[in-house]
């Protein structure tokens, strides 16, 4: 493509266009081949996590729900979503906590319990490691915006 474009000989634009279309087709074909046939299980696992985020959730429990070995599901989850099962659980809990911080007057301890954290200390540490700020700073900084 680069050579054709640089030379700008008669019909170079058509050649460049054709080569580019072929390249895009190849990339799309590779992407379709690499989609795991059973990615629906990952969707099912994510739905399970979103429905049970407030409970203690183990990899074994989620894997049993979707019919996989915990190690295999965790590996598949990481390859498809970029995060492990545990990371996904924490991300869902943090998102639910953000919503509660902004839309309720519940205490930090109540939100920690609501979102499935062991205690408010664990919640605050996890929240800060994921967002860079504490839950109370998040609540006050966001509420002052509105």
Rg result: 23 Å
The proportion of strand residues reads under 5%
Please report the distance between the alpha carbons of the first and last residues: 51 Å
Please count the beta strands (DSSP E, at least 2 residues each).
0
Q: How many helix segments? A: 9
Low-confidence stretches: none
Largest sheet: none
Rounded average pLDDT: 87
- Pairing-aware structural class of the strands and helices? mainly alpha
Outline type: elongated
Topology:
Elements (H helix, E strand, L loop, with lengths): L1 H6 L4 H22 L5 H14 L6 H8 L3 H12 L3 H19 L4 H7 L5 H12 L3 H11 L1
Helix pairs in contact: 3-4, 4-5, 6-9, 7-8
Folded structure, characterized:
This protein is mainly alpha-helical. It starts with a helix and ends with a helix. The protein is built from nine helices and no strands. α3 crosses α4 (59-66) and α6 (85-103) crosses α9. The protein has helices at residues 2-7, 12-33, 39-52, 59-66, 70-81, 85-103, 108-114, 120-131, 135-145. The chain is 76% helix and 0% strand. The chain is elongated.
Which terms would index this structure?
single chain, 146 residues, mainly alpha
